[in-house]
Amino acid sequence: MSRPSRPASSAQAEGVRLQKVLAQAGVASRRAAEELIAAGRVAVDGEIVREMGRRIDPDTAVVHVDGSRIQLRDDQVYLALNKPAGMLSTMSDDKGRPCVGDLVMQRTELLNQAGRLFHVGRLDQDTEGLLLLTNDGELGHRLMHPSYEVEKTYVAEVLGQVPREIGRRLREGIELEDGPVRVHSFRLVDSLPGRSMVEVVIHEGRKHVVRRLLDEVGHPVQRLVRTAIGEVRLGDQRPGKLRPLNQHEVGSLYKAVGL
């Protein structure tokens, strides 16, 4: 005589099948998602899942595929902006100066989805390039916190021909008025008559830190562009344009800050 089947637990009886959630998140087709699960490449709330019938709540579950977190909530927004020079890194300005918020207000569909967006960190008014915007408070907080040491990449046009030893000095550390700073990496991109293009990778988030560093070693910045934050890159995105981050980019940011 066969035993009566046990009722499914509430966690199993409710929610959405894991392979469907992965497919809806754009990770893979449902069939390919099943193969990922069977291969032990999917974790839910820190535990590897191999069962095909597993149901989860997309609003509360934390899902990783190959160690990268997958964004499941459709009310969370992650954007990359190429901030133009001359624009403030604020969502509004009481003096009516051009600011990031002006660009966001033009995208009503984003505001309808996100409710309220905020910028992750700042770029000074004269600095161009990559600025992240989101409504994910925990991720934004960690990306700005110095303890997580998220890499930020800048390309600078500076005055003068940059000698080889400048990179070594910057990697060893430079004493500024608010303490020592060292870069993660430094390279000469191009030499022009009377000017040079250099790339600086730094973990620091102090105000004007790249400009101050390069000025301290005798090469004042004429133009500064942030080209990457972690694995999120500006690429050929045009100034003033917003784009949503893809799953890989969002996952890389989560990974960088331990989420």
Automatic annotation (TrEMBL):
Enzyme Commission designation: 5.4.99.-
All copies of domain RNA-binding S4, residue ranges: 16-77
Coiled-coil region: none
Keyword Membrane part of the UniProt annotation: no
Xref: PROSITE patterns: PSI_RSU, S4
Listed InterPro entries: PsdUridine_synth_cat_dom_sf, PsdUridine_synth_RsuA/RluA, PsdUridine_synth_RsuA/RluB/E/F, PsdUridine_synth_RsuA/RluB_CS, RsuA_PseudoU_synthase, S4_RNA-bd, S4_RNA-bd_sf
Xref: SMART domains: S4
Tagged with keyword Zinc-finger: no
Signal sequence range: none
UniProt keyword list: Isomerase, RNA-binding
Classification via PANTHER family: PSEUDOURIDINE SYNTHASE FAMILY PROTEIN-RELATED, RNA-BINDING S4 DOMAIN-CONTAINING PROTEIN
Pfam family, any one: PseudoU_synth_2
Leading EC class: isomerase
Listed NCBIfam families: pseudouridine synthase (TIGR00093)
UniProt record similarity statement: Belongs to the pseudouridine synthase RsuA family.
Gene source species: Pseudonocardia yuanmonensis
Protein's recorded name: Pseudouridine synthase
